[in-house]
Amino acid sequence: MYFPIGWPKYLKIDEVSSSPIRYIVSSCDRMLFAVISDDCLSLWYSKPCVKIVTHSQSKKTLAKFGTYMAAEWKPDSSMIAVITSNHHVVFYRVEIDISVPNHHCLYVQHEGKTPQNPRFNINGILDSDSVPAIKLIFETSVTLTTDIACCLCVRDEILISTVDGFLNRLKWNGNKNEKATLHLSDIPVSVDLQQFRASKLTESDGHAVNMEYSPTLGGYSLVLSSGKALFLIPPSTRAERATAHAVRAQDLSDAVTVAVNHRYRLIAFGCLTGEGIVYTIDEAVGALEVSHKLIISSKEFPDVGNIAGSVSCLKWTPDGTALALTWKNGGFSLWSVFGALLVCTLGGDYVFQKDSSLLYPYPVTSLEWGLEGYHLWMVCESATDSKSHTEDDLPSSSIESSKSELIQFQFVKSALSVNPCVGNHEHVFLQGEDKLYMSTSDTVSRHSPQPKGEQSNIDIGNKNWQVIPISHNYTAANWPIRYSAVDRAGQCIAVAGKTGFAHYALFHRKWKLFGNETQERDMVVSGGITWWKDFICLACYNIPGQQDEIRFYPRNCKLDNTFAHVCKVPSQVLLLNTFKDTLIIFCADSHVMLFGIERKNTQPNPTVVVHKIQEVSLSNFIPHPLCVAGLTLTSLTSESLLTKAQHTAKEAESMLLNVSGKLLMFQRDRSAQSKPSKGDERKLKPLPFYSPSVVATSVENIWATSKANSGKVQLMEALWLGCGAHGMKVWLPLYPRNEGKAHNFMSKRIMLPFNVDIYPLAVLFEDAVILGAASDAVFYENSFSASPPSNLDGGKIAHLPFCILERTSQIYLHHILRQLLRRNLGFHALDLARCCTELPYFPHVLELLLHGVLEAEATSKAPIPDPLLPRVVAFIQEFPEFLQTVVHCARKTEVALWPYLFSTVGNPKDLFEECLKVGGNLETAASYLIILQNLENPKVSRQHATLLLEASLESNCWELCRDLVRFLQAIDPNDVDSPPHGSVNRMSGSSNYQSIRTASVAGDAISRDVPKPKEKLKQTVSDSKVISSKKPLQRTKSNEASAEKVYIDMILSRHARKLLSTNQIRTLGYYSANMQGFQLVSWLRRERVRAAKLEDFVTAVRDVHSQFDWPLPILTYNTYHQMKKDMALSVSSLASSSLLEEDILGSPTFANGTDSSFVMSSLSSSVPPPPDSFTCMSQSQSDDVLLRPQLSKTEESSLATMEISDSSSLLGEYELVNDIVLGCEQQETLDLETMTQEAANRGPPQSEIELRYLLQIFLEAGCLEWALVIAIVLRDTLGVSRTVNTASLTDTQLDMVARMREGLSYLELWVDTECVGYKPFFHSIRNQIQVLAKISEQTVTERQSSISPRHSPTYELEEGNSSPVIQNIRGNDMFTENDIENEEKQSECILS
User: Fold this and answer.
1) pLDDT band, residue 143 (cuts 50/70/90)
2) Where are the beta strands (DSSP E) in 282-384?
3) 1249/1259 Cα distance (integer angstroms)
4) Which residue among 300, 616, 985, 1068 is the one 20 to 30 A from 870 at the CA level?
């Protein structure tokens, strides 16, 4: 609830006084603080924090009274009683010093123009922005017979405990109330109020050293000098002294201090062991029962009792929602009502930067909370034993004089502590004295355009805060902020201080205050404030009218009482809340009132209509009205009559009250409900409530929602309870499978407790997440640490930790599933889990469930009769994330627990094989490979890694393939049959083949659940030159190559062959780019007559278009119209119809367009073609281009019907021709048509880069068939020419040239029949086709003349000829395919 923030304030104390500060105590309104030292009494003001007056004893009075020890304020702050060491009680009167000018004020805050008169409130006390002048006047003194141990103010009297065991009652005028005086030895003490076996205290039990009184408990809590603790019930009347009775706290003998929580009726005792024990009173017998203990776990700080010492101080916050605890040797902690640790400065970052051995803060001797709990005043001992602190940080004068320090810690608190309305339960909303803290997700969610599921998931992981400064115009006169509220959307905020209220809109970034300041000062918000739709609902006290009221103010109107709707109530409102269109309030007379609210869209401003529905008296169920800590209406019910379908109505079925931590549920009595007839007035009569039933105890906060979600009924209908040290509890509804066949013994709901690691402040029902806040400490290097301090405060904070706020979150679904499975409610657990499968962290929920049960059972020393792990495994098997959950859990668990895990889930080999069967689980299978590596010998790991590598290659998971190749290369052949190591080691990213055996697949690539998209082709330099320059080195390495490397190379080569044989050249490109060490060019050279041999050119062209998303070319209307005319002519007439067309289409400029001239940087290292490579091209390319004007539009040689290459452009080369032939209008039409055609015929830019890269690679490797196909797809005339020239000038095999010519013939036929868009391009490369035909014919002739008829076998260029003789066209040395096959057979022999 409370969290420290920032640095503490060190208050400057008088250097004149040499005595240390002993005690600090605040007045009832906490505006004045009395600081007690040995000889001085000082009064400090709260806001601003300044000293007002100091009263010092003279030597005479010091010798008479002795030193001051402690003090108590009179309830009306008009007097102070101080106890001294010489058994005196000195009374001082506190008055306004009228002798001080400036309207009896020491300080007046001036803003802008100086006010004429300081403003007073209704009680006559100055505003918080003015510091009154106060004087202390000695009134009287009382002398007691023995020394005084402690004192306590009880109503109009002071209770004084003396060392002789007496409890003396003194009045504030100095008179002693003899009738009310008690002696501890006269009081019977028992373990309960039944007074069985009551005994009297003896002298060894000692006297009372610490006392607290609680009006809600009706008695005193005492700590005796012997360490025993008592709860003393005084007599009912002052005359009946014999009726006093005391109850002993059992098993407590080392108590040193006590603090009482009035709201929750708790008694906290601090012990010598450094622990705190909190007791509650059993209402049945009146015995003191242990509620919980305040123990710092060894995880937080070990050995607290010996290091920190005993408990020195305990103090509850003003609202009773947190407890401050300090230790004798230093340190501070903050606990929630029922024992949840909020802050602990022992260990961690809460240390002194200069000396970490000292506890932070220094030993505290006295504590006091400030107004509304925003400040905690501490009296600390100075570090006299640590010279590093005093000499560096303090002036020399203060080192000798000051022996104590006055520190003020600053806090922010949850709005739920004082205003538990429905809006504050749905957001992490904290309030400080001048700022508000709200998580940014609460403010951004309304404007986020994302889907609801994604939006909430972003909210969960957000760690930032939205800090909203409160308007200074409001806080200047109305400090402190008492109540704050946020609407359900998280966009509108309202705050209420000493008087009036103000509200703020995040979307406008403006505060709205009362325009009439008198209206603001005439109302005091007393019972809370909340939002209902666009109205602010608050409970206030009307000062001029002396009346308690409920008011509704519209948000969009001016803040004025004119627009407010006022509803008067008979008594003070303590709590209020809303449920849909119902307002519920709890009053000081223990009555609950329900109001119906209706919004009216009247003009010009909307209004509300409020009518009273029901009033219920709860005085019989509530011990005191102040004990009610929470109130809400819900749609929950514990009856077994309602079905799941009926819960969608979301009506107010019950009322929940948190009475001192005990949750009471009042349900509607529908037994007497009947269907009203027309005109029957019974339909207006509200339903009564049953007597309450206790739902839970130790309850701090309640979360219920009025939202409806038919898909998550169980979560939406659940009731969440925050129970402090007991964790959280969820009251979950149980719906049977068959509504009509439900068992009578089945409960409608079940209470499931579980522990949480954070302090919950909000529950997201649909997202199954708890949100909270935590405090942490950091250090800041500032100028004070490097330079001498210019002032006291600067030197102090230079080495202190700076407290910051952090937002925390935790998933709770696995806790609920585990509790349901433990209770054999697997069906309900399955039903609950299936409605949450769409959550992105649902796989993590299953991992947490499995991991928690595995750790608990596998590490248990005692045998488990009914293990939960088999049920959890069977439950997880119902979801597709089973395999992933098991392996992730195993990898996050110690290896020693693996046998227990896999004995239940199954053999990891079987799970690995199942991952391979189910598509898309390769990453999970890789994780299982690491498990097998540590459980099996390397031989088994290699076998499974090979299977996974082949599957990864098929799925194109290149990164996983690289990791698996490194994994296989790292296996030492000498360790193949060795036993497993039994440990998991992660492999580095190095590609060294001689790595250790324990290397594994890279964890980053394996742990991902979603595979990365395909990587783009890497433009790497061709490996032809690299290979040629390192041939001797490679030859040496190949002789030393291991069988493992040959085995891996065979797998990679086999997959590459498969890709190329199935025309998957784009995948082959990705494969070569991502597989390190795979030389694509050299491999293609070896495979150019086997896997790279292309038989079906038409299918290859189609496959390339499909793989690269490259569109088939289309024809324009004019070209199509002209082709229809040309098809009517003969082939010869078509060829000679137009000299202009032939010459232009055959020109080098036209063939080599702007796109064809694109050369990548990766091709810079390739060998350029010889200079005479263009001599074999068509002769028409070297002739001059002839231009002649067009005579008519119908002439056959019209440029509009010209068949052009996609790579050419009519905008440049033909500008002159078009200007002559066509008019301006026709020219624009032709230009637009050409540009449109180019854009339609061209694929993505990345595909073009990849195609041209592969074209260069295939040309380098001599795979001319594939190079020709790619050039045709690109419609690159230059690329076709290079391919044909390479076939004519290099050592090209005969069958390859024949297949190229035959393939072109099939492509021409395909173009004529199916893809007419290629017609212009094939017409432009007809000369290259003729050249290729001539090369084929010439080669056949040379071959027939060079081979003897007797030795000349017959070679047929058929598809079935799988291994023809590879022969050089120029008659070079012959090399057969059998030689290559023999090399591979030798490699296989080596492996075998």
Assistant:
1) very high
2) 288-294, 311-316, 322-327, 332-336, 341-344, 364-369, 375-381
3) 16
4) 985
pLDDT of 260 > 60? The answer is yes
Q: Tokens for 471?
A: 């308007």
**DSSP state at residue 1196:** T
Angle, vertex CA 168, rays to CA 163 and CA 172, nearest 5: 130
Q: How far is CA 748 from CA 624, 638, 640, 768, in A?
A: 32, 6, 5, 21
What is the pLDDT confidence band of residue 66, given thresholds at 50, 70 and 90? very high
Bridge partners, residue 633, by sequence: 655
Using alpha carbons, list the distances in angstroms from residue 946 to 468, 916, 1391: 60, 12, 15
* Structure-block tokens of residue 771: 């949100």
Most confident of the following: 1170-1184, 1208-1222, 1253-1267: 1253-1267
Question: How confident is the model over 899-926, as pLDDT tens digits?
Answer: 999 999 999 999 999 998 876 689 999 9
The pLDDT tens digits of the residues spanning 46-65 come to 988 999 999 998 889 899 99
What is the per-residue pLDDT for 1109?
Answer: 92
Q: How confident is the model at residue 780 (pLDDT cuts 50, 70, 90)?
A: confident
In angstroms, the CA 1284 to CA 1264 distance is 8
In terms of Cα–Cα distance, which of 910, 1091, 1002, 1016 is closest to 1248?
A: 1016
DSSP assignment string, 477-532: HHPSP-EEEE-TTS-EEEEE-SSS-EEEETTTTEEE--SSHHHHHTEEEEEEEEEE
User: Which residue in 927, 923, 844 sits closest to 879, CA to CA?
Assistant: 844
pLDDT of residue 613: 92
Please give the Cα distance from 911 to 201 (Å, whole number): 72
Q: Which residues pair with 531 in a beta bridge?
A: 536
Helical spans, DSSP H, in 753-801: 783-786, 792-797
Pick the closest to residue 1210 from 1243, 1237, 1244, 1183 (CA basis).
1237
Q: How far apart, in whole angstroms, are the C-alpha atoms of residue 1242 and residue 1234?
A: 12
Q: Which residues have C-beta within 8 Å of that of residue 585, sequence separation ≥ 6?
A: 527, 539, 550, 569, 573, 575, 576, 592, 593, 595
Q: Please determine, for residue 407, whether its predicted confidence score (pLDDT) is greater than 70.
A: yes
Alpha carbon of 1092 to those of 783, 1063, 1272, 1384: distances in Å? 73, 9, 17, 17
Q: In angstroms, rounded to a whole number, what is the distance separating the alpha carbons of residues 907 and 936?
A: 11
Closest CA to 398 of 800, 791, 782: 791
| Cα 733 versus chain centre, distance | 28
DSSP string, 237-285: STT-GGG-EEEE-TT---EEEEEEETTTTEEEEEETTS-EEEEEE-TTT
Q: What is the mean pLDDT of residues 997-1011?
A: 37
Phi and psi for 583 in degrees, rounded to 5?
-110, 130
- Amino acid making up residue 322: A
Question: What are the Cα distances from residue 1242, in Å, to 1113, 1162, 1273?
Answer: 8, 22, 10
Phi and psi at residue 949, in whole multiples of 5°? -65, -45
HEC letters along 1339-1385:
HHHHHHHHCCCCCCCCCCCCCCCCCCCCCCCCCCCCCCHHHHHHHHH
Angle, helices 1043-1061 vs 958-970, to 10°: value is: 160
DSSP 1331: H
pTM of the predicted structure, to 2 decimals: 0.78
Q: Which of 807, 820, 628 is nearest to 718 (CA)?
A: 820
Which are the contacts of 1164, defined by CB distance < 8 A and separation ≥ 6? none
Q: Is the pLDDT of residue 563 over 50?
A: yes
β-strand 245-248 against 188-190: which pairing, if any? parallel
* Element housing 446 (H / E): none
Distance CA 273, CA 298 (A): 14
Residue 568 has pLDDT above 60, yes or no: yes
Instruction: Tell me the C-alpha distance between 185 and 455, whole Å.
Output: 67
Taking each helix axis from N to C terminus, what angle separates 842-858 and 898-905, rounded to the nearest 10 degrees? Answer: 120
